[in-house]
């Protein structure tokens, strides 16, 4: 299986996805912003179609357009603080409208369907370089802003009082989310991308550990989910994105059941 160059490329990208997505996802989940990830994952489709229309890298197009949408969400929060769901609807409508208009125009020089479901066959060397650069920049930024982002995740108002530049960091974080989404679309696909951001974190939260251990377990679960989905989907000849989402749900359910059984056993033995 790994003798094929396209599987080697897919494995390379999958490793970076499995590390980057939970690093971003844990902050989204703690801030109860997981639906922003879903909105931006759908927004990436518009970036993909714009990139294909301009004969440029769809991954780069997705990153640029999703970054703009992330910044737009943050900008609109200033004026619609009580209506976050409305903001997401506005951005989702804008991006999906652009994507459908471009796809239906018949002017695309490539098929965008593989980006909806994920495909191991479409990962190019340029995509690998783009993924490597975006992932390294994102992880280094997360490390540099770790304390401030953790403070904001737990209490944004207290962070403002403490002098944290909340608005600036929120804009930076929206770009980081865009980066995580754009590096994942080749393998995972647009339709289930948000599950890769949220589900490993949701699984790790079931363990009831501190933040750092939860982040570490999120990465472990993400690696298991994505690599299992990649290899098994290859054997079954199905789209890796959808099957990876199924694996993620199964792992989450198994962890919940094991934790519940362990709790029952502990109660009976005490």
UniProtKB/TrEMBL annotation:
<feature type="transmembrane region" description="Helical">
    <location>
        <begin position="168"/>
        <end position="185"/>
    </location>
</feature>
<keyword id="KW-0812">Transmembrane</keyword>
<dbReference type="GO" id="GO:0055085">
    <property type="term" value="P:transmembrane transport"/>
</dbReference>
<comment type="similarity">
    <text>Belongs to the ABC-3 integral membrane protein family.</text>
</comment>
<feature type="transmembrane region" description="Helical">
    <location>
        <begin position="59"/>
        <end position="79"/>
    </location>
</feature>
<dbReference type="InterPro" id="IPR001626">
    <property type="entry name" value="ABC_TroCD"/>
</dbReference>
<dbReference type="InterPro" id="IPR037294">
    <property type="entry name" value="ABC_BtuC-like"/>
</dbReference>
<keyword id="KW-0813">Transport</keyword>
<feature type="transmembrane region" description="Helical">
    <location>
        <begin position="126"/>
        <end position="147"/>
    </location>
</feature>
<feature type="transmembrane region" description="Helical">
    <location>
        <begin position="238"/>
        <end position="258"/>
    </location>
</feature>
<feature type="transmembrane region" description="Helical">
    <location>
        <begin position="215"/>
        <end position="232"/>
    </location>
</feature>
<feature type="transmembrane region" description="Helical">
    <location>
        <begin position="86"/>
        <end position="106"/>
    </location>
</feature>
<dbReference type="GO" id="GO:0010043">
    <property type="term" value="P:response to zinc ion"/>
</dbReference>
<feature type="transmembrane region" description="Helical">
    <location>
        <begin position="6"/>
        <end position="29"/>
    </location>
</feature>
<keyword id="KW-0472">Membrane</keyword>
<keyword id="KW-1133">Transmembrane helix</keyword>
<dbReference type="GO" id="GO:0043190">
    <property type="term" value="C:ATP-binding cassette (ABC) transporter complex"/>
</dbReference>
<dbReference type="Pfam" id="PF00950">
    <property type="entry name" value="ABC-3"/>
</dbReference>
<protein>
    <submittedName>
        <fullName>High-affinity zinc uptake system membrane protein ZnuB</fullName>
    </submittedName>
</protein>
């Amino acid at each position: 299986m790994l003798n094929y160059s396209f599987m080697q490329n897919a494995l390379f990208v999958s490793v970076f996805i499995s590390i980057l997505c939970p690093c971003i996802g844990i902050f989204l989940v703690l801030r109860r912003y997981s639906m922003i990830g879903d909105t931006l994952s759908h927004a990436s489709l518009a970036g993909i179609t714009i990139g294909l229309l301009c004969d440029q890298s769809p991954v780069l197009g997705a990153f640029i357009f999703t970054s703009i949408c992330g910044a737009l969400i943050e900008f609109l929060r200033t004026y619609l603080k009580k209506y976050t769901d409305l903001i997401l609807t506005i951005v989702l409508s804008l991006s999906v409208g652009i994507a459908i208009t471009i796809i239906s125009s018949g002017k695309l020089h490539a098929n965008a369907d593989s980006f909806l479901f994920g495909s191991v066959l479409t990962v190019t060397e340029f995509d690998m370089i783009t993924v490597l650069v975006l992932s390294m920049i994102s992880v280094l930024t997360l490390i540099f802003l770790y304390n401030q982002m953790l403070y904001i995740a737990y209490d944004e108002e207290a962070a403002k009082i403490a002098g944290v530049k909340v608005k600036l960091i929120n804009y930076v974080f929206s770009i980081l989310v865009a980066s995580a989404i754009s590096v994942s679309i080749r393998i995972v696909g647009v339709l289930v991308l948000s599950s890769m951001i949220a589900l490993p974190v949701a699984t790790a939260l079931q363990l009831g550990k501190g933040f750092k251990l939860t982040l570490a377990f999120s990465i472990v679960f993400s690696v298991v989910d994505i690599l299992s989905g990649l290899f098994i989907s290859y054997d079954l000849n199905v789209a890796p994105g959808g099957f990876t989402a199924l694996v993620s749900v199964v792992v989450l359910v198994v962890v919940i059941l094991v934790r519940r059984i362990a709790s029952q056993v502990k109660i009976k033995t005490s």
